[in-house]
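Contributing new records

If you add data, match the layout below exactly. Sequence lines come first and carry their own label; structure lines follow with theirs. Keep one chain per record. Anything else will be rejected by the validation script.
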Amino acid sequence: MQKQPTKFHFDTEFDHNGEVLREGESYKRFFTQDDVDAARMWGVEEGREMEEGRCAQSLQAIASQMQLILARLATESEQLRNEAVMLGLAAARKLAGEALSQFPADAIEEVVREAVMDLRGEPRFSVRCAPDLVEMLAEQLEKTASDCGFEGAVVVRGEEGMTAGDIRLEWGKGAIQRSQADVESRLNEITERWLSAPTEDADPIDPAAGAMPGSSAA
């Protein structure tokens, strides 16, 4: 019976004399220590690069989320800031109005007290106020002026249209006045200035800074 030929796989290594140096099958199974070390290093490096890539993606995702959160917080903070200021303004208006309504004589007396310190040389001055306060203020303001060293005459007159706390002080060379409208205008001015300032530069509103001065030039 004819013998079947063996298929040659071209994976056997020969020298120049035709001697077999290494069979193909054994060649496939043989790895040097350098081959093993190189494969190990390649695997370690590949794994490190993959892990670094995943970490970079995670950090980028976290950074994106943080930017969204910070932007939202900044918007909400600005809204809360504006709402707080407007609430404070409403409260200040109410308090100022209540103070002038409940203690109109005290408010007017304070204006007169501050003014007469500079009017001691005047022969007289007149005070215009709400008509229903004339009787109450006439004697009180005369005493206040006298206590401050004013020796001239003090005339108190009622004027229609004036409300509690409104006052106009007149003398020979000028006049000063203060009203509820002046108070609200001053509060609005302070609020608008504070809201228009950058958040990090805006100082807390000082109640003393928002108080109306004793008078305003006519």
